[in-house]
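Below is how a single chain appears once it has passed through the pipeline. First comes the sequence as given, then the structure the pipeline wrote out for it. We keep one example in the README because the format questions we get most often are answered faster by looking than by reading.
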Amino acid sequence: MLRRLFILIVVIGILGAGGAWWVLQQFDVPYRGFTDTEIFVELPPGSSTADIAGRLSAMGVVRDPLLFRLAVRYAKADRHLQAGEYRFVDEASPNDVIARLRRGDTFNHAVTFPEGLTAREMGDVFERAGLGTADEFVQAAGERSLIADLDPRAKNLEGFLFPSTYSLPRHAGAPGFVRAMVKEFRKALGAEPLPDGMASVRDLVTLASIVEKETAAPEERPLVAAVYLNRLKIRMPLQCDPTVIYALMLRGRWNGNIRKTDLQIDSPYNTYRYPGLPPGPIASPGRASLDAVRHPADVKYLYFVSRNDGTHVFAATLAEHNRNVRLYQSRR
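Resulting structure:
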């Protein structure tokens, strides 16, 4: 009797050890239960191990939620699985998945914000990327405390959201993207002294935003900056169409065409009616436009007119300018 009991105990022990060995082996067995090319799994903050296992199993990332929970317990990773959005493409074992979740290897969404956009237009880019609404972005761009040291008079972050490509996880939301853009703006701004005639960072960014909107030709930016700086020095109105367009946008009246009557709009951004720089930036300038204002061309130009091919012709006198207008605009 005792011998039979001993044999039973030995058999149970062997089966138990074998079962444990089999389970441990399953922790390293790859699995792919989804048929799409890729899938995204969002793990909300505060999710329990059971919640995570259930979600991963339902999405076909892991074969069995209980097996995954055992793997997590064995790896002592219960409190180390990070929330966020994860992208899965290839088959992966429970241990592979756990390692990714411990690292917080979340999927980052890359969004490119081109130069010369307003905060509202950047919001549209943000919304088209599927990361939130344009209104959420505009609201986040109202966090003026982010630049209080640079521009105490700022009412929002217009002009201080640096245009570039940003790669962030979805849960960063509009505030996360905005903070990253302000951080990049600070890098682009640097610590170089303000140029002559610029009383503040706000003045620098405002003029750089005008330069950004006036020309897309890199070689012209220092020339355009020189024209406006020359005008400011002699207190000549800037008479800049992009500032009028911005004024129309603020009133909800911009339809893509600027008319002569629009040049009379009563707005501090209308540089045909009000001398000096407008109250603030009209778009987000890139690094080249910021540099152009800091290092304008050494020229006496006061005028420029479009050649209708994306470039401009410059003039130092009104007579030269009128001749250029007749040559390039009247014919058109």
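The longest helix spans residues 2-26.

See the next section for the split statistics.
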